[in-house]
User: What shape does this take?
Amino acid sequence: MTLIEDIVLRKILDSRGNATVEVEVYTLNGYGRAAAPAGKSTGKHEVKAYPAGGIDAGIKYFKERMDNLIGMDSTQQEDVDAILHEIDGTENFSMLGGNVATAVSLAIAKAAANSLGLPFYQYLGGAFARSIPKPVGNVLGGGKHAVGGTTIQEMLAVSLGESAKDNVFANAEVHKIVGKKLRERFPNISLGLGDEKAWIAPMDDIEAIELVVESVKEASESTGVNIKPALDFAASSFFHNGKYHYRSRALTPEEQIDFVEDIVKDYGVYIIEDPFDEEDFESFAELTRRIGHLAYIVGDDIFVTNVERIKIGISKGAANTVLIKPNQIGTLTDTVKAIKFAKENGYATMISHRSGETCDTTIVHIGVAFGVEFIKTGAIGGERIAKLNEMIRIEEEIKGE
Ligand code: PGA
Ligand code: ZN
Assistant: This one.
């Protein structure tokens, strides 16, 4: 019943209008579909999304070798993912492409769940998978996701209420208030949205943080939900020649540590992601020593969902939270290993969308299945609300409403 009968791959659009890969897997009585997203501010140590010849070469490479998976039991995820590694034969999926591997791996798991008649989160997590991660939604930003915005890539809201539904609406409310404040502040210019549907405005980083902090406060009061501000610096993208380059100044790593510490203390920032370059474990460790008790310090580009890199971070006391993006590492097995390893070592986890997305909702299910604390998946926008609305559905199901 759960044996893999067929695998279909196709190119589909992502939210930036680029091609990405979608995979469908058929068993005798089940079906699973998954798509891979695309990053723009990607970490140097991520697996390669596609081989040298691009997406078509990745699809072709897989099709020529997919007989290795046909007839396998779709419930044997570790074996399936071992075959994907074997088919590729490299350390970083540079022959098959991490995106093809990710979409195949997830689609097979979803076909297994469907064959057994279980929701995906329940198949993965069992009867005790009942907590929904707190949503972290991007409301204002810049970096590589927008032209003319802030240097800090993402300014976000994280809603900490008990109800997932209240939380996603609370984040959307922050997004609305930020929009209203921007229109008041810039009555004569056109405002836009970045890749993750956060507002873009020609603002200095501190000005922008203050506007978000104000908006978070207002939304907290009007919705009654406890909402906090969060930041993803994506600092590797503005670290050049030993300094962090903001619009009007450049900071040394030591100055950057002080700057981030002050921001957390002054503005009550609850989550800080990638405040340093992706190789700088030492600065992460120093910041964690100083403010690790006040904020979640998240490693994205520095850890790239990779157990070996997380291990280095743990040994040095760098960060206290691991960002989880399945296509940074290429298979479901490796993704789950990263989540479990982080948790076993007392680190929190945050599962995340990418800036180029599809309407795929798999990350929500993985988040619920493994008790992931946070999910970063935007505040509004079609490919973002696909996931936010899935959280509302899963919550209904869990609560038996
Ligand atoms: P991405 O970055 O553009 O690589 O998806 C998002 C992030 O830095 O979290
Ligand atoms: Zn990031």
About this structure: The first strand starts at residue 4 and ends at 13. The mean pLDDT is 98. Residues 134-399 form a domain with the TIM Barrel fold (CATH 3.20.20.120). The chain has two domains: 4-117, 134-399.
